[in-house]
Amino acid sequence: MKKISNKITIAIIACTVIVSTTVAVASTIISMNSIKTESQEKMKSVAEANAKDFDKTLIKVTATADSLSKTLESIVDVNKLSTNKNSYENEIRYLISNYCESNKDFAGAFVIFDPSITKEVKEYIMQDGDNKGIFEFTKERDLDKYTPENKDLKWFYNTINNNNANWSEPYIDSSTQLQLITYSVPIHKDGVAIGVAGVNMTLKYFKDSIESMNLYKSGYGFLLNDTFKFLIHNKYGTNDSLSTVENGHYKTLEDDIKSNANGDTTASMEGNKYNLAFSRMSNQWTFVVAVPENEIYAPITRLAIIIGILIILGTLVAAATAIVLANRMSDTIKAVTEVLGKTSDLDLINYETKEINKALRQKDEIGAMTAALSHLRQYLREVVSLLKVNSEKLTDFSKNLSEITAQNSESINIVSSNTQELATGAMKQAKESAKGLEDLSSLSKEVEIIVSTSHKVKNQSGAAKQKSYTGLEAINILKQRTMDNELVVNKLSETTGQLTDASQNINNIIIAINDIAEQTNLLALNAAIEAARAGEAGKGFSVVAEEIRKLSEQTSESTRMIGKIVQSIVDSVSEMKHNMDMSKNAMSEEKLSVNNAEMSFEEISSAIEETEKEIEVLIEKVKAVSDKKDKVLSIFEDISSISQQSAAASEEVSASMEEQSSSMEEIANTSAALNNIVMQLDEITNKFRI
After folding, report:
1. Could you read off the pLDDT of 611-641 as tens digits, one per residue?
2. How would DSSP label each residue in 611-680?
3. How high is the mean pLDDT of the chain?
4. 365-534 vs 539-687: helix axis angle to the nearest 10?
5. Which residues form a coiled coil (predicted)?
6. Which of 83, 167, 457, 684 lies deepest, with the highest CB count within 10 Å?
């Protein structure tokens, strides 16, 4: 078994190591994050500050070139340029000299007119050949040098052909052997590019600024153009770009820089991990600073070593302290363990050793545990003494309980037998009562059906009576309607007779009109004959006579048609009169039938009233039977309920007697078990040493 002192020592050392390691790791991580954030902000600040400084110079370059171009556009006449070689020479030289003298950080300024327009070379280039701030005009190139194939003039033709301002790629000027970058702007006249004005800058200006930066131990900066080619780098040349060097290893870095104007990122460069910050300038150049990550975290590395040493020293001190404390605690715990062992062996004799007394005086958990153990042993001694005394008393009580239980058990068996006979009789009576109640319930249901049927018959009788009243009312209404129809038919018959007379009168009128038409026709014919005899003088009268003849013929035709219509009306009226006569006969028969129906409904109503009176008497008698049936049924229900309760009570008493008998048996068994327990308790208490 492992010693407790070793466990305590190991626990203290483990806690010390875990806590100190956790603190060290947490502080290291927090410090690394803090230093990383601080370095990122510092690098971004350096990148943005230098980019702003460079941007100021670039803005000054673009502003100078733009100003020079605009000035020349306002004063130059193209015709004079092509006819007079010396036109504007003094003004242009003055402008260029003025711009160069006021900007000593420029490498030079120039104005070159397109030879294809001027038909000769007109270039004014002022440069600081020794890069000492002394500007001089250079010698003009020969005309045959001005070709698009000349690499020294590539920037010139790009500006002319594209017709917009641009920055050139870095190049070595053949006359000064300086590495230059040119910003050139086209000079427009009437919408046509007639030349180029621009400013030259040496890359040495930017290179000196970048190399003078102090970023940690080996951090450095570099400059990229708008296509991410290197303008200034301590390893790569101006023909290299991020996407091509190292087999495209930096393509991801290019994408990061391309997607953000300012920011920071990380990349693996030259076999080490680098932190980078970048800032975009107004001409889309990008300035980048790069610092090895191990240099940024160098203070953290030193701090981690110091913390590791302190952890080791702290662990050694904690181990020594733990060993001393564990040994002191171990002696006391051994003494307490020895007493616990004696207690487990039922040895409750009071032992007071030096170690136990020392433990009792301690004010910690061990002292409290020792005191509790001492109190427990004292309490156990008292309990064992009391158990021995009570064990003897329990033995006497157990014997008396066994004798009393045997006597009670015999009496309960006799009472149980008598109760069982009583319960059997009560059950028989309850069954007979239940059967009688069942028969009476059936009779009660039949009576209820009769009552219900009687009420239904009464309701149906009332409904039939109401129907007879309704039918009688309908007969009266029908009788009145028949009388009304009879009056209408009589009046209609009278009107039909009048219509027949009127039709006859119309027919007489038509005959008269027809006679008049025939006479008119004869008169027209006679007039036509007389007109014919009169010759030319009677020609007009002949036309009138012809029209009168046509009119008389139309009148005759119309009277014939009216005669047919009137005859049709006369026929219809005759048919109507015949129908009216038949309707009058039908009305008489209908009137007789209605009177007979009225008498029948009155007889039905009287019969229903007599039937209703008889049904009322029947319902009263059935109701009396139903009331008496309910009383008898209630009495039988009470008798059945009492019988069932009596039987149930008898069964409960019998069951109680059986349970009592079983309880007495259990008491007897418990008494025997109690006697065995007392004997076992005596054996246990005799094992204790007090």
Report:
1. 667 767 767 776 776 666 666 567 656 666 7
2. HHHHHHHHHHHHHHHHHHHHHHHHHHHHHHHHHHHHHHHHHHHHHHHHHHHHHHHHHHHHHHHHHHHHHH
3. 76
4. 170
5. 594-628
6. 167
